[in-house]
Amino acid sequence: MIPSMPVTVVAAKPSEPAIPGNHRYIDIGVNLTDPVFRGYYHGKRKHDDDMEAMLERCRAAGVGSMIITGGSLHESKEALELASQLGFYATVGCHPTRSSQFDQFRGGPAAYLEELDKLIAANLAGKGRVVAVGECGLDYDRTHFAPAEVQRRHFRSQLALAKKHHLPLFLHSRSAHKDLVQILREEGYDKDGGKEVGGKGGVVHSFTGTPEEATELMDMGFHISVNGCSMKTEDNLTAVKSIRPEWIMVETDAPWCSMTSTHASKRHLAALPPSLSSLYFPQTTKPESFVYGRAVKGRNEPAAVGGVAWVVHRLNEGVPFEKVTEKAWKNAVELFGLTELQ
Ligand SMILES: [Zn+2]
Question: Can you tell me where the transmembrane regions are (predicted)?
Answer without folding.
Answer: none
